[in-house]
Amino acid sequence: MQAVDLARRTYTCRKWDISGLPCEHTISAIYVKDQDPIGFVDSCYNQRKYLEAYDPIIHTIAGEDQWPLVLAPMEPLAYRAPPGRPKS
User: Fold this and answer.
1) How confident is the model at residue 72 (pLDDT cuts 50, 70, 90)?
2) Mean pLDDT for the chain?
3) Which positions fall inside the Zinc finger PMZ-type domain (predicted)?
4) Does pTM surpass 0.85?
5) Which of 43, 24, 18 shows the shortest CA–CA distance to 4?
6) Burial letters for 20-59: b for 16+ Cβ neighbours within 10 Å, e otherwise?
7) What is the DSSP string of 27-73?
8) What would the pLDDT profile of 25-39 be if each residue is shown by its tens digit?
9) Residue 1: strand, helix, or coil
């Protein structure tokens, strides 16, 4: 028999404990209690924690209007037929 404990945020299948995300059975139990499942998702999945984790790493890049100009337009590579007999 499976048991959901919303106060402890546990379920005997352990999916919720391991992932921090309520599984389908837990979400059903949350809806039975007329609560919002979003409130039961682990805080590591919210936007604030994401931004805190990547704040020192993610840097913005310059827009296309600020890219350096090149001297000449880039040309495509020259086509070379693969070695061997043609297949047609």
Assistant:
1) confident
2) 86
3) 9-36
4) no
5) 24
6) eebbeebeebbeeeeeeeeebbeeeeeeeeeeeeeeeeee
7) HHHHHHTT--GGGGS-GGGSHHHHHHHHTTT------GGGSPPPSSP
8) 889 889 999 999 999
9) coil
